Amino acid sequence: MWTRTYLVLLVVRLYLALQPSYIHPDENFQGPEVIAGKTFAFPHHLTWEFTTENPVRSVFPLWPVYGLPMVVLHWIWSELGTNEVPPQVVYYTLRILMFILSFVLEDWAVHELVQSPGHRRLAVTLVASSYVTWTYQTHTFSNSVETLVVAWSLVMVQRILDNKPSSIATFLPQVQSLVPPGTRNHTYQYRPFSLLVLSIATLLTISLAIVVDTSFYQTDSPLLNTLLTNPTFTPLNSLLYNTQTSNLATHGLHPHYHHLVASLPLLLGPALYLFITAPIRNVPRLPVLSAMSGILLLSCIPHQEPRFLLPAIPLLLSSIHLPRSKSLTKYWLAAWIGFNILFGVLMGVYHQGGVVPAQTWLGQQTKLGVSMGEVFWWRTYSPPIWLLDHNPIRTTDLMGIPFATLQTQVETALGSECNPNESVGLVAPYSSMEIDHWIVTSAENQAFAFEEIWRYGQHLNLDDLDIGEEGIWRTLGRVVGRRGLVVWKVRRVCGVRMGEEVRGIMREDW
Q1: 193: number of Cβ within 10 Å
Q2: Could you give the CA distance from residue 508 to residue 44 in angstroms, rounded to a whole number?
Q3: Among 165, 214, 399, 408, which one is most buried in terms of CB atoms within 10 A?
Q4: Which residues partner with 396 through β-bridges?
Q5: What's the half-sphere exposure (Cβ side, CA atoms, 13 Å) at 411?
Q6: Which residues on neighbouring strands pair with residue 451, listed in sequence order?
Q7: What is the full per-residue pLDDT of the chain (510 aa) written as tens digits?
Q8: How many angstroms separate the Cα of 82 from the Cα of each of 73, 74, 76, 335?
Q9: How far apart are the C-alpha atoms of 386 and 399, rounded to whole Å?
């Protein structure tokens, strides 16, 4: 029974890993966007973390996680003698890789950390049935990689405490700082040689990271001279940046209790109730102490996002027991299953789900005979530029600017003179009803023609909620009832009456 349950949960994890949902822009712009641009010369956009005078994002961990698979794909395609690797192949290869890493390393780490056979099955099942594992952990977040590194660092410490040989100790020493101080002291007291190994490995790791980052960010001068005079040390830059509240204010400030009252309930759901109310008995001490110390440390930083807590989630889930009461256990299991199905479908399928398919389709538009020089994106997450392949389309991310400003931008791009061969693209959620009015008005005034050329139904834009103005049910009716992402081709009308043509594409029956 347990084996069948685990296999079913594994299939669910693989299915959601292959869905193009888009949880947060950082899953693209802090990893694949950077490395794909360097490896395949795809068009790409570097965010401020990489372009600031003192870069705060290290590329050292990106190369083994994302760079190596891309290099292998590049070699395979070269051996086959075909054209360059399509970006969608790279995208789904990375998703499958993250699934494999999650399935092998995360579940294995939980299996090792929980030594009680009875509790081990519960811990592995809870981790495997969490929507966080299905979605966040199978996306290309740096936090997802951190989850695996932290988990295996704890496995290394556990092996040291159990007096077992651990070759992994030479590969993951830099994360030892996340282990509670009392545990570290105990470790080094009984295995003093490990402190020497830790020091040497940490020094080598830091040195290699500095070399890689310096060569990436400073290409104008000889590497050796730059390393001696002005090396790039991104962890220090990041620390200095994040200690300034004025810098963090640009990303959003949160109270110190935000993780406790918002992030943890969102990630754990009903499991948080068991962690708080049920007595912790016969649970591995190392995971729960590491998780709690990490959460407290991250709570001291005023900018807080749920994904920052990803490394703590499997540790917390492996530290709880089901209620003793069978009836309470039945109700809790129902709540746990419902919670994870709801958020699994939401975050794994629908959340900004049309952005990646739309950008992939636009990258193929020259082959489909669709001619657009510029595409405006409105009310969506920033589209990954590298998915355009080598298409010369210019992407303009308008984020959530006011509708009037959007109109001005589009009209300016089309120019004042009518050219029947000139058009721009507009990508926007179908739930944005302002565009409906714009289409009708443009038809009546014979000013602009809108042609719907692509649509993707599995797209929800949760940033478009306006409950204060519209109310709960009207907002949900619009955002959920009119879910989807639409690509419009917009051009000026050149003396031809377009009213009936434009009104014909306003399909309310979709």
Answers
A1: 8
A2: 36
A3: 214
A4: 376
A5: 11
A6: 489
A7: 888 999 999 999 999 999 999 999 999 999 999 999 999 989 999 999 999 889 999 999 999 999 999 999 999 998 887 778 999 999 999 999 999 999 999 999 999 999 888 889 999 999 999 999 999 999 999 999 999 999 999 998 888 777 754 444 433 443 444 444 444 444 445 556 667 777 888 899 889 999 999 999 988 888 888 888 889 999 899 988 988 888 888 888 899 999 999 999 999 999 999 888 866 666 678 898 899 999 999 999 899 999 999 999 999 999 888 888 899 999 999 999 999 999 999 999 999 999 999 999 999 886 544 556 899 999 999 999 999 988 888 999 999 899 999 999 999 998 877 877 788 999 999 999 999 999 998 888 888 899 999 999 999 988 887 777 788 888 888 899 999 999 999 998 876 544 444 444 444 433
A8: 12, 10, 9, 50
A9: 18
Q: 14: closest CA among 108, 121, 128? A: 128
Q: Which residues pair with 492 in a beta bridge?
A: 448
For residue 355, count CB atoms less than 10 angstroms from its CB and return exposed for 0-12, middle for 13-18, buried for 19 or more. Answer: buried
Query: For the packed helices 87-101 and 2-17, what is the interaxial angle rounded to 10 degrees?
Result: 150
Residue with tokens 């407290």: 296
Burial class, 211, CB count within 10 angstroms (exposed 0-12 / middle 13-18 / buried 19+): middle
Q: Quick check: helix, strand or coil at residue 490?
A: strand
Residue 78 tokens read as 């070269």
Contacts of residue 385, defined as CB under 8 A and 6 or more positions apart, other chains included, come to 33, 42, 43, 44, 45, 395
- Measured distance CA(218)–CA(324) in Å, rounded: 60
Which distant-in-sequence residues (6+ apart) come within 8 Å of 266 by Cβ? 306
- To the question of pTM greater than 0.85 for the whole model, the response is yes
Give CA 168 to chain center in angstroms.
27
Whole-angstrom distance, CA of residue 226 vs CA of residue 395: 35
Read off the tokens for 264: 């943890």
Burial of 440 (0-12, 13-18, 19+ CB in 10 A): middle
Using DSSP's 3-state secondary structure scheme, residue 443 falls into helix
263 alpha carbon, distance to own chain's centre = 16
CB 432 within 8 A of CB 475: no
N-terminal to C-terminal alpha carbon distance within the chain: 42
Instruction: Evaluate whether 187 touches 315 at the Cβ level (below 8 Å).
Output: no
Q: Which two tokens stand for residue 27?
A: 């899953």
* Distant-in-sequence, close-in-space partners of 93: CB < 8 Å, separation ≥ 6: 69, 73
